[in-house]
Amino acid sequence: xxxxxGYGLGTRASTDPDRFAALVTSLEAHRFDSLWLSxxxxxxxxxxxxxxxxxxGLTTKxxxxxxxxxxxxxxxxxxxxxxxTLDRLSRGRLLPAFGLGAVDPGEHQAFGVERGDRxxxxxxVLPLLRRFWAGETVDHDGAFHHYEGAxxxxxxxxxxxxxxxxxIAPSELKRCGRLGDGWLPSFCTAEDVxxxxxxxxxxxxxxxxxxxxxxxxxxxxxxxxxxxxxxxSGIAKRRPGIDPTRVIASGLDGLRAMIDEHIAAxxxxxxxxxxxxxxxxxxxxxxxxxALLPLQT
Length: 297
Fold this sequence. Notes:
The protein is built from 10 helices and 13 strands. It is of the alpha/beta class. The model has no long low-confidence stretch (mean pLDDT about 95). The protein has a 7-stranded parallel sheet with strand order 5-3-2-1-13-11-12. Strands 4-6-9-10 form a 4-stranded parallel sheet. A two-stranded antiparallel ribbon has the order 7-8.
């Protein structure tokens, strides 16, 4: 099983151009597998598509993905064009990952869809993206989108362009089994990963599909100090009854131990996310690389 370690930025990440460039170039220099950017319209973090386009221009090897890009509310044809272009111009380094969006009215209004429609839109749009990226001439008459002889060019360099999904709710796990190529949940325990893989694989089998056993992992936040109260309260709302220390690693030793637990549960693709940005990206990433990259096989 090929273990890979990626690095992500949270929703409060800096948009200072020099710091962003230092992060991206240091990640590639220290041989991390990938960079992942979050989407939060109302947050200070960079727009993930624009940010990853900048990252692609600064690098030649590192892969990059979204954690995650909100799908409901985006025009499927324009999104297919945008991401196919990004994949082609980066020489096939894009890792598209999609979600429904944060449970936040301030975010929902940016996408112009009713909260209750998000899952239905997602289920309609994701297959459309696959058809556009496969080079089909698309005829489609759905509840939310209508196309007659629709074509999108260029095609992605990767064939197929594999799609990653997140979430640990039963509906999200089953959606991944039906529609996804990989699973990358957040704020989850190793036990969640083990149970989630079983549901995804069973659902995939029911739909005559198979998810690559090396395409399971997790986003794992870490901190060098106490867990900030705002983060702890967010976890309490998202995962009632879960001790935050079970889903947020303490220090690099704790992060390594948590990843080891996830590997034992069946995961192999990980994105580690600092709760606070360091003063010196290169020095910090050197320490993270020394602690974690020996896991990459």
